[in-house]
Amino acid sequence: MISLQTINMSFLSQLLEHYHLNTKDLGARSAPGSFDNLKTPFELEDFKKVIERLKKAISTKEKTVIYGDYDVDGLTATSIMKLALDETGLNPGFFIPSRYVEGYGLNVERVRQFALKGYHLIITVDNGIAAVEAISEAKKLGMDVLVIDHHDVPATLPKFDCCFHQTYSHFLDYNCSAASLCFFVASFLLRRFDSYFATLAGIAVFSDVMPLVGNNLELAKMMKQFINKHHYRNLCYILGNGSISYDDINFTLIPSFNSVGRIMKDSASTNNACRLLLERSDEEKIKKYANLLISCNVERKEIVKNVTFLNQYTLSSDHGICLRTNDFSGLSGLFANKVMREKNVPVAIFSKDDINPEYLVGSLRAPEGYKVDEFLKKYQSMIVAGGGHERAAGLTIREKDYYLVCTMFISECSKQALEMEEKTEDVINITIEDLNEANYSIYESFMPFGEGFPAPSFKLTIEKERLKSTASHKCLMANSDDQQGQVVIFDHIDEILNSEKPIFDIYGNLTMEIFRNSKKIKFLSTKIM
User: Fold this and answer.
1) Is it the case that residue 3 has pLDDT exceeding 50?
2) Could you tell me if 34 and 222 are in contact, meaning their C-beta atoms sit under 8 angstroms apart?
């Protein structure tokens, strides 16, 4: 926690006003995460049914399989359940599908394979709440199905035997990750809160963009605490052994795990990504599995870096872009994010569904201020499946509806752009001399940032003569007088250098760079005016 006697009250006051907090609120937010602050589901009827069914499986050594998902929430949820049930002696199997072969969620063919292998109980994690056909097949084949899921509850529910879901089970009035639901199941079975399980659940808070409130906030904070305390070998092989920040989780660890499901088309690879989370001691296995993630992440970066979409736009306007690509469907979200950053407008990128050729799968990405999830809500009749949050979403549509969907997307973006023009941008004004360690420690006390509590946008006015081009000409920089702070501009370099304007308003975010024990507080530009 920070000391109010040693800080820049002006900088603190601006942040408190920005978030509509007082110092007491900040004290609670900056306090360490604690198991004591978690709301538990242990007395809920649905939760008790799940526990009873698992205890039955444990006592009879019932042949059990966990069916997860290829994203980070699915991988962490599967790992928590597998490790906890191993500890009880059940030793279940597990399966992580390939997005290119099985696609998302439990399917009929995989259920039949489970039956042939003699499984009696299927546990779905991060999927299952909408698997009507697959679960019906499982019941026909004499298997029980236990669902642990956090996705939207459909109008027609599958005939599962028991289910634990944050809203269906009357546990929470906000969304949470499947990993956090599994964390509570594991905690009750083992009669303890496990720091590694809490770490995995905390990672999933960020990977699945959960709102940073209640249990989500506590798990997020504990995740950072426990990684830095225990330095888990499997995670730190990717993160390194230094101090781990929230940015390290969001921009290094999570993309590394997600890259396997995006790049590799076989389920063996996605299952090996899960095995890295399961393995915490065998150095050779950790190295093998982690290197798979690292190589996939490098390939993912190269593909996204080199892809271009010149003249491929299906529809475009000043307020939105739609296009199709034949590249990896698993990378469409990253492609959309790249185009969005280049053009600063909402982007929709579609590609053929690898499972059903009559469908297209799409990714929506948008700059701050837009709400692509509103588009999904308004045009549900044209969308086969979809979900997401304000600035990022995924959807499946019928190929025959593609042009209509694109037209409606551009129209919705234009409407939102007009509404935003009427709003005053909520930014915090600072100077280059405010970029120092003392102010950054204040900024850190508001972390973690995420869904429902985004990082603030700062506005900084700077003289053109202070901006110097780097030797590689890849960016412009300016240092504060005390050399603690630095402004970095990556975009519109030629425009700035050739401009006759003496002063520029720069919008951006803060970060801290540590190099050879030297700290530099950096202001990374996102927009120039």
Assistant:
1) no
2) yes
Q: What's the angle, vertex CA 221, arms to CA 215 and CA 222, rounded to 5?
A: 85
Tens of pLDDT, residue by residue over 289-322, are 999 999 999 999 998 888 877 667 788 888 899 9
Report the Cα–Cα distance between both ends of the chain, in Å, rounded.
36
Question: What is the CATH topology of the domain spanning 37-295?
Answer: inorganic pyrophosphatase (n-terminal core) (3.90.1640)
With contact defined as beta carbons under 8 Å apart, do 293 and 259 qualify? yes
Q: Quote the tokens at residue 199.
A: 């770490």
Cα dihedral 118, 123, 128, 129 sign: positive
Separation of alpha carbons 73 and 203, rounded Å: 8
**What does the pLDDT read at residue 500?**
85
Domain 313-421, what fold? Diaminopimelate Epimerase; Chain A, domain 1 (3.10.310)
Angle between helix axes 45-60 and 178-190 (nearest 10 degrees) is 60
Amino acid, res. 266: D
Task: Render pLDDT for 56-91 as a digit per residue (tens, 0 to 9).
Answer: 999 999 999 999 999 999 999 999 999 999 999 999
Structure tokens of 520? 């530099």
Task: Give residue-wise pLDDT tens across range 281-293.
Answer: 999 999 999 999 9
Please tell me the distance from the alpha carbon of residue 12 to that of residue 30, in angstroms, as a whole number. 13
Report which of 238, 268, 279, 327 is spatially closest to residue 98, judged by C-alpha positions: 268
2 or 364, greater pLDDT: 364
Query: With respect to CATH, is domain 9-30+426-528 assigned 3.20.20.30?
Result: no
Identity of the residue numbered 201? A
Q: Can you tell me the distance from the alpha carbon of 334 to that of 356, in angstroms, rounded to the nearest whole number?
A: 22
Rounded CA-CA distance 126/72 in Å is 10
